[in-house]
From TrEMBL:
Gene3D superfamilies: yeast vps74-n-term truncation variant domain like
Family, as annotated: Belongs to the GOLPH3/VPS74 family.
Keywords: Golgi apparatus, Lipid-binding, Membrane
Identification of the protein by name: Vacuolar protein sorting-associated protein 74
Organism placement in taxonomy: Eukaryota, Fungi, Dikarya, Ascomycota, Pezizomycotina
Annotated source species: Parathielavia hyrcaniae
Membrane topology recorded in Swiss-Prot or TrEMBL: Peripheral membrane protein
Length: 359
């Protein structure tokens, strides 16, 4: 999506959806057409300061730049190259055809859940710290914005602005509203539209996908075949590592930097989200039948263990991922001040159990 400020055109990766959709339409207006700003309260606050700054060049001329580009570049350097939403979408895309299964009804909802997950992992949202919150189920606890710094990822920033300017709501309410699942016409504007197409275009900007036009009988549709197969294969390897190996070891890469906070927990959340989105099997296709069954059983256990707070690993006869509880406990111990954010992670995974029951 391009926005123009003081005569300057800025490219903000993965922006507004153009024609076509990454697979079938999202069932919630994720279809074809231009992205319109349907979310409420999205007008820029004039008190936020100028968007354009200037510095002196070598020849004495002033050079215009947007300070947000610098802050967003710094933000991206600390984060994985792909967001949780992009990883789940990439797992679901057919490599050569470049579209999702037309029969997948779960992925749209799961992707909205991944947006909340990503904001929690990046420290933007947390549970509202009230003593009474523990009397409510995890998905019904109220969340709030604790850091409104933009991330540079358009969908995340759009959701963050909505959460900042609206009334405070629960995890499940936000995921429902962003998915368009509401009878309240006053809140229909919270729906995030064209999420799959916008994520796919973000992956095109990042060099992972390319855009093609494919004819489907009576109409043309934009598809997004995989260009960088290494990115998708790295996700598959990580999934298989977590779900099939006795000792989980996650190698550092641009997709999962060594210094990233909650590396292991983030991967577990991605696996659970892919399971809820009904795309996990695409990462397990090279395994035999028995190995796949064990992997799905392990996913069920992970979803049960990490959809509650505090996290707790139940005793099991399964010999997969024996070191996971200890590694994740060490990650949490390094950031004790992030407890309310991790509570949001648990709440999102709890919401995913509703989709799990539909599989």
């Amino acid at each position: 999506m391009a926005t123009t400020t003081s005569g300057l055109t800025r490219r903000r990766g993965g922006g507004g959806g153009g024609g076509g959709a990454a697979g079938a339409s999202d069932g919630d207006a994720d279809g074809m057409g231009s992205r319109t700003n349907s979310s409420p309260n999205m007008v820029r606050d004039a008190s936020a300061g100028p968007e354009t700054s200037y510095e002196s060049g070598e020849n004495g001329h002033r050079i215009a730049f947007d300070p947000r580009d610098i802050s967003e570049s710094a933000e991206r350097s600390k984060q994985p190259k792909l967001t949780l939403m992009e990883e789940v979408l990439l797992l679901g895309l057919k490599d050569k055809q470049g579209y999702l299964s037309f029969w997948n009804d779960n992925i749209s909802y799961a992707l909205r859940g991944c947006i909340v997950l990503e904001l929690a992992f990046r420290g933007r949202v947390a549970m509202q710290k009230t003593p009474s919150r523990r009397s409510f189920p995890l998905p019904d606890r109220i969340i709030e914005v604790v850091d409104d710094t933009l991330t540079g990822e358009v969908l995340l920033d759009e959701a963050l602005k909505m959460m900042k300017t609206s009334e405070k709501m629960s995890v499940s309410s936000w995921i429902d509203l962003m998915s368009g699942e509401t009878w309240n016409l006053m809140k229909i504007g919270y729906q995030l539209k064209q999420v799959r197409e916008r994520l796919a275009k973000g992956l095109v900007d990042k060099g992972i996908l390319r855009t093609e036009k494919r004819n489907f009988l009576l109409f043309d549709m934009a598809t997004h075949p995989v260009v960088d197969s290494g990115a998708k294969e790295e996700i598959r390897r990580r999934v298989r590592n977590v779900l099939t190996q006795r000792t989980v070891v996650l190698n550092a890469s641009q997709w999962l930097p060594e210094g990233l906070e909650f590396r292991c927990l983030r991967t577990v959340a991605m696996v659970c989200a892919a399971y809820a989105a009904n795309v996990l099997e695409n990462a397990l296709s090279t395994l035999g039948h028995e190995a796949r069954e064990k992997a799905f059983n392990q996913t069920d256990e992970l979803l049960a263990d990490y959809s509650q707070w505090p996290f707790g690993r139940k005793a099991t006869l399964n010999d997969i991922g024996e070191n996971l509880p200890q590694v994740i406990a060490e990650e949490i111990a390094k950031a004790p001040e992030k407890e309310l954010q991790l509570e949001v992670v648990a709440a999102c995974l709890n919401v995913f159990t509703r989709l799990d029951s539909l599989l």
